[in-house]
Amino acid sequence: MDKKSNQTHDFLERRRQLLKMGAAGMPMILTLKASANQSVHSALDCSFKITSAVNLLVNHEGKVWVGDGSIRQHSDGRLNTADIASFKSDADFAFPSGSAPDGYVPSECPDDGCSGGGGDGDWDDDDWYFGGSGKDLLEQLEESGSVVAFTNNKNKNKNKGGGSGGDDDDDDCGSGGSHGDDDDDYWDDDDGGSSSSGSEWTDCGYNFYQISANTTITPLEYMNSSGDWQISGTKGLYIVLGAKYLDYYGNDGGFPGISCLHSILTYLETA
Amino acid sequence: MSSSVEKEWLWFADQSLFSVREMGEVTYIYSLRSGNTHVFNAVSMAMLQYFVAAPRGVDELIAHFPDLMGVTREECPRGVIRRIFGELDDAGLVQPVEKRA
């Protein structure tokens, strides 16, 4: 009751503030003009800032955990298995299998080794997740081959060290490793194919991506002149997850940047 | 549009002419007629909904809007209401539908 009362009070205060701004001459309606001369609608121009660091953990099934926890990395790029487990349990958002495009998904650890990371069998029904499969953005990515292109690009980097893409057949333990913003690779150039069976470190089964605080994401940068999505890098993964969030949960303002993504996807649906 | 003309007409917001998407504290209204997207806050959205519910006059709006907002008339002066209504009109989201009897 108190919570409801507080909410009512907050809404009232917000309206008062808005009316004060209105009295001061601030427009209460902003108009985004459509223009036939623009190849891309102004609604696509929005960008958003990730104010605090966001980390994304992807497993071999394409499940994704999003949170602000950290995962320690060995000097060779391997991830700490205990930290992986903690990150998953403390994640702010969790997305089901198939949420991450193929290019972001690591190879599964072989049964006879590389079993670190604790697996992912802890997906419970009461976990907060978004069910079903993706559509629109992801479908478009698959059809356009953008994801495939990204996979190839990332494999060039991954083959340097501890990580690998899904089609790297001669990799001992599949992928694993951390990816900073865009092209900042954390792994070194030394051989990263070591097994991590029974170890507190793993170099397979998980990819870890990091977005630092105050990173600005402009979705338009991931769309070509034809209006097709071309997803790449850690920011691209974040955009894909935002689209997933919208598909299954709508815009509740809880996922940073969701309003910007919503305006874009809404525009694309109605255009 | 002058206030005398406004008073003679009832105004209506035909929601079949726009699509609505709520996004946190703002609401996006995409006008199917103009192709423009309008960003509404809680106050302007409440006013739009007032005219979606039924054709109404501006004088009714001025009388009822403070109560609708849950604030006093001092906090929601007539001039502010009229100006926000003007924004709705400029956006083409309300149309005069019939003269007051």
> What value does the Rg of chain A take, in angstroms?
21 Å
Q: What is the CATH C-level name of chain B?
A: Alpha Beta
Structural class estimated from helices and strands of chain A? alpha+beta
Number of helices of chain A: 6
Mean pLDDT score of chain B, rounded? Answer: 86
**Number of helical elements of chain B:** 4
Task: Tell me, briefly, the overall form of chain A.
Answer: globular
Helix coverage percent of residues of chain A? 25-40%
End-to-end separation of chain A in angstroms reads 43 Å
Strand order of the largest sheet of chain B: 2-3-4
Gyration radius of chain B, rounded? 13 Å
Give the CATH architecture of chain B: Alpha-Beta Complex
How many independent structural domains of chain A? 2
Largest interface: A-B, 31 and 35 residues
How many strands of chain B? 5
Describe this structure in a few short sentences:
With 271 residues, chain A is of the alpha+beta class.
Short descriptors:
heterodimer; A: 271 residues; alpha+beta; 2 domains; five-stranded mixed β-sheet; two-stranded antiparallel sheet; 6 helices; 14% strand; globular; B: 101 residues; Outer Surface Protein A, domain 3; three-stranded antiparallel β-sheet; two-stranded antiparallel ribbon; 4 helices; 5 strands; 43% helix
What does this structure look like?
The complex is a heterodimer of chains A (271) and B (101). The longest helix of chain A has 22 residues, at 2-23. In chain A, the strands form 3 sheets. Chain A has a 5-stranded mixed sheet with strand order 6-4-3-9-7, sandwiched between helices. In chain A, a hairpin with a 4-residue loop joins strand 3 and strand 4 (64-67). Chain A is built from 6 helices and 10 strands. Chain A has 2 domains: 1-30; 42-270, no CATH class. Chain A has helices at residues 2-23, 81-89, 137-144, 146-158, 233-249, 258-270, and strands at residues 29-32, 48-50, 54-59, 64-67, 79-80, 93-95, 176-179, 201-202, 206-211, 215-217. Chain A starts with a helix and ends with a helix. Chain A is of the alpha+beta class. Chain A is 30% helix and 14% strand. Chain B is an alpha+beta fold. Chain B has one domain: Outer Surface Protein A, domain 3, CATH 3.90.930. In chain B, the strands form 2 sheets. A 3-stranded antiparallel sheet of chain B has the order 2-3-4. Chain B has a two-stranded antiparallel ribbon with strand order 1-5. The radius of gyration of chain B is 13 Å and the shape is globular. Chain B starts with a helix and ends with a strand. The mean pLDDT of chain B is 86. Classes of the chains: A alpha+beta (271), B alpha+beta (101). The interface between A and B is medium-sized, with 31 and 35 residues. Strand 1 (29-32) of chain A pairs antiparallel with strand 4 of chain B.
